[in-house]
Amino acid sequence: MGRNLFQGIIPPSLESLRGLEILDLSDNNFSGQIPKFLEQFVFLQLLNLSRNHFEGEVPTNGVFKNTSATLIMANGILDQGRHTVAIKVLNLSRHGASKSFKAECEALRNIRHRNLVKVLTSCSGIDYQGHDFKALVMEFMGNGSLDEWLHPTPRINETLQEQRSLSLFQRLNIAIDVANALDYLHHHCQTPIVHCDIKPSNVLLDDEMIGHVGDFGLARFLFDATQDSSINQSSSIGIRGTIGYTPPEYGMGNEVFNIW
């Protein structure tokens, strides 16, 4: 049911479907409160309410106790609606997810820059089923990712004429924003940091169309050259990054680059 044109409140008639194991209502135009009857869906293994327009209190019982099974990204509201945030819940079943979380927390611990996505807090613990749970709470970027602007698909209630596009001036400004972020990471941090996965989907745009670099799950530190050189070198055995955006020199075992 995700990515449809549904709008309004979640219909009360849905309450009769208590045998559901997966309920995906993401990428619609639902509004109002998240109904408490969803707490009674005891068989739900995944509930995805992301990218709608829900308001008010989030239920706390039933599936909502298992935060790793409940996705409400772009609906997360703190302090009774005064602060909208984005919540990144890690899928710990993926290989290397815990290591990625540790790398991202380490990289973001002591860095601050207007062109980096600000992480407000992190959460690492155990859910009510005894499973590991890890999440990052970040500032919400109202205009999504650069990838969504470079390769737009029609949004709900959006006509062809209203589809998003970037002017040459906006593209240049976003490129400058990313360059400023990389310059800060490479030259103005106590220990230089290489992002290792720069691509359009990891560049997020705020309401003013200012670019912010995010997702430091593959980041690495460049320690002093006097230390073991193997720390600072890459290897074709464990190449980091996304195919198509990783420089060929990296796979050959040379220096780590962010741009090629």
From TrEMBL:
Cellular compartments per GO CC: membrane
One term of GO molecular function: protein kinase activity
SUPFAM superfamilies: L domain-like, Protein kinase-like (PK-like)
Keywords (A to Z) from UniProt: Leucine-rich repeat, Membrane, Repeat, Transmembrane, Transmembrane helix
Domain Protein kinase: residue ranges: 49-260
PROSITE patterns found in the cross-reference section: PROTEIN_KINASE_DOM (PS50011), PROTEIN_KINASE_ST (PS00108)
Keyword Membrane: yes
Membrane as UniProt keyword: yes
Principal subcellular localization: membrane
Cellular compartments annotated: Membrane
Domain of life per record: Eukaryota
Record protein name field: Protein kinase domain-containing protein
Organism the protein comes from: Fagus sylvatica
